[in-house]
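User: I'm designing a mutation panel for Carboxypeptidase regulatory-like domain-containing protein and want to avoid disrupting the core. Could you give me a predicted structure to guide residue selection? Please restate the sequence first so the numbering is unambiguous.

Assistant: Good idea. Sequence first, for numbering, then the predicted structure tokens:
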Amino acid sequence: MNCLYRFTKFGMILLGLTLCVGCGGQKDKDLPATISVKGVVTYQGKPVPDAMIMLYPVQGRKPASGKADASGNFTMTTFEKDDGVIPGEHKVTVTAYESTSEGVSMKSAIPEKYTYQNSSPLTVTVSESENELKLELVD
């Protein structure tokens, strides 16, 4: 009985160590490289606060997202917070809503053409160096 207890105790310790090693913070080596991308989004020359920016790779890889602050500034994320964007050409969408009172349907703060991939006129090319985007939205 004592031998069984020792074996079970050893097995539990070994299982715990295995789980701890498997939860390390090492970055997945199979993920494509990303490039730092930040920028500002404006509409009619004014910052667009709280806008959601999406960059969809033309090659069909994982899209990147960013959320503008009160000044319209944003940093893009693909896999981990603020890690950047996969290099290449991207279709850009921007979504932003006006502040409304509770119970009122939300109204777009920008022209709706920017909201959808098939209607947005915005494209960007992310190069191998750091990229600073200026997304200037017009009517």
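For picking mutation sites, this is relevant: The first helix runs from residue 2 to 22. The longest strand covers residues 88-95.
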